[in-house]
Amino acid sequence: MKVTDVELRRIELPLVAPFRTSFGTETTRDALLVRVLTADAEGWGECVAMESPLYSSEYVDACADVLRRFLVPAVASSDRVTAAGVAPALAPFRGHRMAKAALEMAVLDAELRAQDRSFGDALGAVHERVPCGVSVGIMDSLDELLDAVTGYVEAGYQRIKLKIEPGWDVEPVAAVRDRFGDDLMLQVDANAAYRLSDARHLARLDPYDLLLIEQPLDEEEMLAHADLARHLRTPICLDESITSARAAADAIRLGACQIVNIKPGRVGGYLEARRIHDLCQAHGIPVWCGGMLETGLGRAANVALAALPGFTLPGDTSASDRYFSMDITEPFVLEDGYLTVPRSPGLGVTPVPDRLDAVTTASEWLSW
Known about the structure:
The protein is of the alpha/beta class. It has 13 helices and 13 strands. Strand 8 (213-214), helix 8 and strand 9 (236-238) form a beta-alpha-beta unit.
């Protein structure tokens, strides 16, 4: 497969409500899309980097720059491109996993469309639909939080994840447990907002029987997470710390986590995400699919990934209307707490031209 043209397209989608975490508040989704053209097919990729380097060191402008100057030329200059060959071709360039993931995703989409195969089939999906959880941001009041959670529970979401930070942790968890009872699958996400010295305070969450506490400490503090795990009954799940299958292997060996959140963009792509899944499954470590406010493109790929056998916990694969009043693809709709895995070739979805044009802020083509 020869890549002839690549489009880098910036879009801006307003969120239906502000989404607040320990590292900031988002009101719009400023996203970078990668479109790959070959002689036989086209493919779409989505870069999950944020507008600013808050969740990770990557951000949208930098991803566009490294794709334009280094990553796309390295792939497009080859006469024979495969999705499996993207990561080796980009290996000389350090880091930039989210940008690499977007390009690999576009190449994989084009490759599978040409082969008349779906993402799910290629990755090894075993389920036709996946259970869905939802991530609930930090609110201004407990009443606002309870109203939001009530809406998601009534919509059918099977698991609730609360974003937490110092000063907003035990009390909101207690309020949600008191309102909805012990049967609600409930977990929390700290986005690295705590320190090991907060262990005694975080242990106050243990009585609430949470599924997990996600990334309580800094992403580089693997040993500290292993120490923290000895002080908590609540299982620790790692997110930002898991940047590759090698990092996941280290975390498992050190006892730094009991659960892993797999975000394909964070680890460099869906093929590396599958390797992490396989590693965790071999070690009996449950995994689930995290979300990064993806459009329907990224959501389609995430739902396919979440249909692999090791994904035993509901992920952040929410319906489109959780974040957007109008998605750029046909929307994903929650049905009895599940999303259906696309079965059409490639991602199984494509942008609706009018919707895509309405939210496009910039576009450039790179040709070979």
